[in-house]
Amino acid sequence: MPLLDPTRPDPFWRDVSLDSVREGVVLCVRFLCLVSLMMNREIAMELFERDRHLWFLELMYCDVPSEYQTQEINRLTLAYFVVSSFTILRALDRIDREQVASWVLSFQARPRNDEDLENGKFYGFYGSRSSQFSAENRKELDHHGGHLASTYCALAILKMIGYNLQSIERESILVSMRNLQQPDGSFMPIHTGAENDLRFVFCAAAICFMLNDWSGMDREKAKKFILNCQSYDGGFGLVPGSESHGVLSVHLCLSGTGGATYCAVAALYLMGFIEDDLLFRNASPSLLNVELLLEWCLQRLNADGGFQGRPNKDSDTCYAFWIGGTLKILGGLDFFDKGALREFLFTCQTPYGGFSKSPRQLPDLYHSYYGFCAFSLLEEPGLNPLCVELGMADVAALGI
């Protein structure tokens, strides 16, 4: 059974069994060519292999491997990784923007009438086709509704490909999003049965920022929740009183990695509560214990040059963004050895294109994307700059 509704365009996850034999042969030939290339020349692992990365992304754009089927519920997020990667690598021409926009818009949840906006459900974007239940079939399925992280990814994709977000059905998103904010200022990602923590405060702030409308949240309540999450060591836990984290999932909302500390700092920046280069603004008082936060971030450096997510953990490609991005917002990118970080990242660059979590592993979309982000932070030639606080390519720099 195909995973998708065949009546709708879906460039990111075609059922391989439905592909033509010719397409399969083309993919096999390209793979054999890559193997031949690897066997006949030494791979320059001290160079950013842009062409290999683009080859990897083009494969992911056409046919996501079967190993990703366990993440089917997060297909909008996987698409976000692909589109934003193309954008960072200055290769947005490799995708059909109109087709992508149509595909993304097909995931928006819409209320049947104005009364539905008061039923507590969130009318943002679904994470995948399988989470869209038709009205006649869903019966008593209470989880029918949008998801904050998927909505963030959807709007980010549309923004990056130049779609006018003013034409989005924004009122239903913003009005229903207020229902997700809890009395302590935190957010749940869906209307019932989910955790509430800093990840979704960030998503809500990013959504309001991209839509240029803050009616979807109470910023003062959100600020109070964020500040209550700063720990004694300067980092941020996902909720007040929890361990400081550079880990846990922001985008996939699975068991991957993310950045509670990044989410806290980026959300405060998006909401207008902190400014650029906070470390050098001694004249004005800060909401945060900035010195302790800086110390916590710099303590995440390992001897191999990479960043860890929390104490006593190994270095990981994605932390180069989660911690590095936090330092960028604070104005502390010059406080660590960028050359050492670059060398660590090269050990995670794979001969197949993309990046792995750690050296000598296979690449995946999540770590590949944050590897590209990290090299953008390190100002790798030929890459577009980042809008660090939104976690994506700087569309203003692209002239979109």
UniProtKB/TrEMBL annotation:
GO cellular component terms, A-Z: CAAX-protein geranylgeranyltransferase complex
GO MF annotation: an example: metal ion binding
Location of the Prenyltransferase alpha-alpha toroid domain: 48-387
Essential cofactor(s): Zn(2+)
Keyword terms, alphabetized: Metal-binding, Prenyltransferase, Repeat, Transferase, Zinc
Pfam families for this protein: Prenyltrans
The family this protein is said to belong to: Belongs to the protein prenyltransferase subunit beta family.
Protein name in UniProt: Prenyltransferase alpha-alpha toroid domain-containing protein
